[in-house]
Structure formats: C-alpha cells, structure tokens
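User: Here's a chain of 22 residues. Predict its fold as tokens.
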Amino acid sequence: MLAKIPMTTTIYSTGTHHKSEK
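Assistant: Prediction complete.
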C-alpha cells in the first residue's frame, strides 16, 4: 500500500498539514 502510492501519500499528508496549519 505504501509502495503503491508513496508520492500521493506524501502530497496528501503535506497538503493537509499545510492547509490545516495555515
């Protein structure tokens, strides 16, 4: 699962964190 979409997970996690922080 992690190896299936590592980029998507990173973008999703970073995007959510950045949007939530801002």
